[in-house]
Amino acid sequence: MIALGSDHEGYHLKEDIKKYLIELGLEVKDFGTTNEEFIDYNLIAKDVANSIQKNECDKGILVSKIGSEIAICANKFKGIRCAVCLEEFTAKNSKTNIDANIIAIPECLVGTGAAVNIIRNWIASDFSSSRHLDELNTLKEIEKENMK
User: Fold this and answer.
1) What confidence tens digit (pLDDT) does each residue in 76-119 have?
2) Which of 57, 64, 107, 130 could be cross-linked to 1 through a Cys-Cys bond (beta carbons 3.0 to 4.6 Å apart)?
């Protein structure tokens, strides 16, 4: 199951992404927002990150105006690795290199077609454990030290 969420400035792209994921036959849990009225992006990031921490969802997609603000919040949660993705290369490498379990997409820079390509590459990629396991383990150790 994929957790999906956006703030008010990412609402329209989130809705397009949801349609795409459903067309692929994937289960989607939509954490909002449901319109263009202001909502604090931190609340959406929190809900999506919590759903992954609790194993209710396998991965997540966040959408906001610039992506980085919502990604920063998601990365405050233990076990979450959220990468801002502007194109397919970043999406693929966020999965193969750091095993990103959430991606953040900036609506002001990415249209629906590009978002679909980003998501397609991210979903199709696997973590390259033989090459990047040491770095991921180091990251997890850092997380243990600093997220008590």
Assistant:
1) 999 999 999 999 999 999 999 999 999 999 999 999 999 999 99
2) 57
Q: For residue 56, give both structure tokens.
A: 């209710």
CATH number 3.40.1400.10 given to 2-146: yes
Of 119, 103, 128, whose CA–CA distance to 49 is shortest? 103
Which helix or strand (DSSP H or E) is residue 125 part of? none
In angstroms, the CA 119 to CA 16 distance is 12
Per the structure block, which two tokens stand in for 57?
């969802």
Residue 127: what are its φ and ψ, rounded to 5°? -65, 130
Which three-class secondary structure state does DSSP give residue 107? coil
Query: Contact at 8 Å (CB) between 91 and 103?
Result: yes
Whole-model pTM above 0.85?
A: yes
Nearest to 59 by CA among 124, 114, 106, 11: 124
Is there a contact between 64 and 7 (Cβ–Cβ < 8 Å)? yes
Q: For residue 41, count other CB atoms closer than 10 A to its CB.
A: 27
